[in-house]
Amino acid sequence: MALITVRNLSLGYEGKAIVENLNFTVNAGDYLCVVGENGSGKSTLMKTLLTLRAPLAGSIEIGDGLKKNEIGYLPQQTMVQKDFPASVKEIVLSGCQARCGLRPFYNKEEKALAQENMERMGITNLADRCYRELSGGQQQRVLLARALCATRKILLLDEPVSGLDPKVTLEMYNLIAKINKEGITVIMISHDLGAAVRYADHILHIGSSLFFGSKEEYLKSEAGKLFLLQQQGGEKK
């Protein structure tokens, strides 16, 4: 069943479009990777899906009982966020804020959910540590646990391995794949086409050309072949 259906979507700033006529569907259990050139509108798409930015045209339909405040989101981190002076437990719990409504405290169920997601991410031993004292990989696990507290259906991840070393990057990709296999739909922005075709089942390419389909179809498409050549050329430099 479709969780998100995007029809003829145009994205941009101050009335100027950077992406036009975007169409794709995300079904329950999908793992969709969003790829494309820098500045092509990938992060803008994420913010639009989260209703943080209005589209210039087109529509986004939410289905299968999914509410807009039930989407888990892991954004790219800024230096200010990396230096946030709160405990791991406090940050993970903050993912339950949308569940609280007007209630000014977390209940037993929400605290149990935070504990469950810290266990899923293997960070229970860090619960009382200050977030800013953690390594980059540990911080990403904390933010992933926080995002999981906000949803039982879908995660939006914006470059979740950016700045991480290869070993930690692989661990993070494996964690995300495990979460997807447990039934949570994943939409992930990635600049790493190799990882995209290894882990995802569908690819959305946005930029000078548009493509949406299976990863097998993408690798055979003109957009996929060209982007792969560009990435290989960048790696050789």
Molecular structure report:
The chain has helices spanning 42-49, 79-82, 88-93, 97-100, 108-120, 136-149, 166-181, 193-199, 215-220, 222-236, and strands at residues 2-13, 16-27, 31-35, 57-62, 71-74, 154-158, 185-189, 202-205, 211-214. It is an alpha/beta fold and 237 residues long. Among the domains are: 1-29 and 54-66, no CATH class; 67-163, P-loop containing nucleotide triphosphate hydrolases (Rossmann fold, 3-Layer(aba) Sandwich), CATH 3.40.50. The strands form 2 sheets. It has a 6-stranded mixed beta sheet, with helices on both faces. It has a 3-stranded antiparallel beta sheet with strand order 2-1-4, covered by helices on one side. Helix 5 crosses helix 6 (136-149). The longest helix is centred in the last third of the chain and has 16 residues, at 166-181. It is globular, with a radius of gyration of 18 Å.
